[in-house]
Amino acid sequence: MSPSQSPDSVPEYRIEDLAHHSGATVRTIRAYQDRGLLPKPERRGRANVYDDSHLARLRQIADLLERGYTLASIKELLQAWDEGRGLGGVLGLVAEVDGPWTDEESGRVSREELDELFGGEHDDTAVSEAVALGVLVPLAGRDDEFLVPSPQELAVAAELHKAGVPLLAITEHLRELRGQVEHIAARFLDFTNEHVFIRYLGSLPTDGDASEAAELVRRLRPLAQQTVEAELARAMQKLAARNLRDHLRSAAALPPPLGEAPAGEQVRLPTGMVEAVRGLVGEERAPDFIAAAAEREIRARAMDRMAMTAETGTAGTEPGSGSELGARSGPGTGSGTGPGSG
Q1: Which of 83, 210, 228, 309 could disulfide-pair with 93, CB 3.0 to 4.6 Å?
Q2: What is the DSSP pairing of strand 142-148 with strand 107-110?
Q3: Is residue 200 classed as helix, strand or coil in its secondary structure?
Q4: CA angle 131, 132, 134 (to 5 degrees)
Q5: How many CB atoms lie within 10 A of CB 127?
Q6: 329: Cα separation from own chain's centroid
Q7: What's the angle, vertex CA 303, arms to CA 297 and CA 304, rounded to 5?
Q8: In the chain, what is the greatest distance between 2 CA atoms, to the nearest angstrom?
Q9: What are phi and psi of 147, to 5 degrees?
Q10: CA distance 146 to 167
Q11: pLDDT tens for residues 314-329?
């Protein structure tokens, strides 16, 4: 029968009607009765009759199940309610903890917009990874549209991809980062449980205790995020500066590219010669080979000069000095004593 609509009477339901109005199945309602979660119905002849208190209880159970509570813990909460200890504070605490921990509002994105956001790349594997991670949530009956719980997180992924990071590398990094962040969150909860919420643990809190704990949650909720943001900023500044110094130090230690030298000491070599050296010793060893060849030539000239000095009895000059270069520069240049001097 349908619930009575008389203003002076209490609505009454058969089990089929109760199932229809609550969204639970007849089998589930009977299982709740057997486990003591739902009060027994009133017996009217051969029929069981339910009322609005049963409907409200079924909706409470469904709400707590959605929040992740087990049937055993729900039974304890409902027993506290039935014994007059109150559930208002407890349910307020549940709502406070289960509520959003960020002011960011979710958004929606179509598959076309998603592809455009990532440079026109249509990557089904990356989308499946994003769905598995909860970055994208498929909308029922809309194959081409997704709910985006954190638009900021999606925007970060798009910027990383634009900078050259592959999509699957981004999702793999997020998976690793999420595990590390969940570890930080667990440590923060352990810390606050030990020092703040210890007095509420171990038993079902009273209505007043639960309300007090909910207020503490509201006060402490932003602290974890603020601490992590401050420490992340400190660590990024420290490590990024160190990373840049290391790269600059490594770059300074590299030999200059072929055909280049430090400012003020530019040396231009014929292209054919450079290519010949590369073919002889390879790309990486070419600078060292050219440097060694130049050094050997300088030493050879110095030895030649020393030998000529011994033969003529004149004072020698320092290797590489202007007079030595003049002595070996050919006919008609300077007053050196080498071949070709006047």
Answers
A1: 210
A2: antiparallel
A3: helix
A4: 60
A5: 20
A6: 66
A7: 90
A8: 142
A9: -85, 140
A10: 18
A11: 544 444 444 443 344 3
Helices in the chain by DSSP H: which ranges? Answer: 15-22, 26-34, 52-66, 71-82, 88-98, 111-117, 124-133, 151-162, 167-195, 207-253, 271-281, 286-312, 322-327
Taking the C-alpha atoms of residue 14 and residue 11, their distance in angstroms, rounded to an integer, is 10
Task: State how far the Cα of 180 lies from the Cα of 98, in Å rounded to an integer.
Answer: 21
Q: Which residue has the higher pLDDT, 342 or 22?
A: 22
Q: How far is CA 208 from CA 75, 123, 234, in A?
A: 20, 53, 40
In terms of pLDDT, which residue wins out, 249 or 230?
Answer: 230
What gap in Å lies between CA 141 and CA 149, rounded to an integer?
18
**251-257 long-range contacts, Cβ below 8 Å, gap at least 24?**
255/287, 255/288, 256/287, 257/287
- The token pair that represents 310 in the structure block: 């011994």
Query: What percent of the chain is predicted at pLDDT more than 70?
Result: 80
- Phi, then psi, of 138 in degrees rounded to 5: -60, 140
> How far from the centroid of its chain's Cα atoms is residue 111's Cα?
23
Pick from 127, 167, 173, 122: nearest CA to 146: 127
**Using an 8 Å Cβ cutoff, are 57 and 41 in contact?**
no
How many degrees, rounded to 5, is the angle at CA 84 between CA 81 and CA 87?
A: 35
CB 37 within 8 A of CB 75: yes
**Rounded Cα gap, residues 331 and 322, in angstroms:** 16
